[in-house]
Amino acid sequence: MLASMGCAGGMIMLDQTVVAVALASMASGLGLTTYALHGVALVYVLGMAAFAPVGGMAARRFGLLPTFRCGVVVFALASGACGLTPAGAAAEPLLLLLRALQGAGAGLMLPVATTLITHLYEEHERGRALAAYAGLAQVFFVLGPVVGAVLTQYLGWRSLFLVNVPVAAAVLWLASKARITGEPQPVGGALTVVRPLLVVASVVLLVLGLYWCGAGGFTEPEPFAVLLGGALALALAVRLVLGSPEPFLDLRLLGIRPYAVAVALTFAVQAAQLVVLVHGTLFLRQAMHRPLLATGLCLLPLVVTLTAGTLLSGYLLDRSRSVRVPVLLGLAVATLGAVLWTLALPSLSYARQVPGMALAGLGMGLPVPALSAELMRAVPKDKRGDASVLRQTLRQLGGAVGLATAGALVLAANDDADDAAGIVTATATPSAFLAASAFLLAALLCAAALLPPRWARPDRTEAPGDS
User: Fold this and answer.
1) pTM of the entire predicted model
2) Which of 161, 246, 314, 430 could form an SS bridge with 82, CB 3.0 to 4.6 Å?
3) DSSP labels for 272-295?
4) CB-based burial of residue 156 (10 Å sphere; 0-12 exposed, 13-18 middle, 19+ buried)?
5) pLDDT tens digits, residue range 341-394?
6) Residues 3-54 pLDDT 10s
7) What does the DSSP assignment read for 146-195?
């Protein structure tokens, strides 16, 4: 079961990094516009954010394993269909729909994995099991750019999606071989669909409305109408969720200040991380004209230092016994790195980008594991499952908001001819990096003002997996 969950988590992480390398090839192969090019990355993360709480609710109603299997099947079918998307006028809407379904399948899997591992392993084994799960997913994340470059160069971009089908089959086979004892029984009762659908619709309207502002122009009334509709729908959804005796997404947990601060900082870090990953890759491919394999290798300073920061975070937290040390240090280093990377872009020199890239990766890796440990310590034990679902939902939503904001700025700065050709120019890319820098700077200021000087030391057996 641990191998099954780890492969599933790795598959989800892989589809965030491998696709970034292949976006330029997909744009030329299918005739995608720049609007759709950004959308391929955006709707996947948006689908995860929207369906993570649905996955948590379905797991309580139908059981952990049935929900997990459903998510794997949806993810595999959508992946296979993405790989078979035909070129033509229908390519853009079809590919975006299939990527959203991929994200929905990932959202169904995400809340189940750590919960199932927590139930399967005794407390003295749980830390190692969760660390192994998180480590396997992290390996997929680090290898993503290189794997994506190799597959795209030798087998074409379609292979990035088609390879998920046998991996998903292996995940289901491994899960079927596991002997599950002690899995929590599903909770009976009527299945609520109105509130989840309203939450999903409101989040989609908000994020896509924000992204549409760049394509339609910041002075056009239609995007703002969509944004307003999304905001009103979200306000209604929040009110309905808070008024429910058994909410599918426990927003009341945000009333716990340490938890709310940690989730807000995680939101901002995820927003910046996906922006620099996607737009840094596009800059290497389209502005600097780097070959596919070279692009994958050029991203290693970012993903390797990101992993190093993740591993270092727990050490700093244990040594200092204060969450401020890894979080403030990480956010300061990440902000400096993002600014240096932004300043290096106009030179079109890769060597000048490496210091900023490495600092940004290291800095963004430091805060999240420490925040994960602390936010789980801040909530009661019987609420940690709900806290994990809410955190995962808002973290992925942060990535979607970051991509939408950066995409809107890039679309506004890009020429119309380049937008139609699916090309992001060298002059438009810095606006995306400025957005990432702004997210990190806002997180740094928030952390300096709101994080208490010393929090309780985390329980080692529960910190690694949620990282």
Assistant:
1) 0.85
2) 161
3) HHHHHHHHHHHIIIIIS---HHHH
4) middle
5) 999 999 999 999 999 999 999 999 888 888 877 777 788 877 877 887 888 889
6) 888 888 888 888 877 788 888 888 888 888 888 888 888 899 988 888 888 8
7) HHHHHHHHHH-THHHHHTHHHHHHHHHHHHHHS---SPPPPP-SPPP-HH
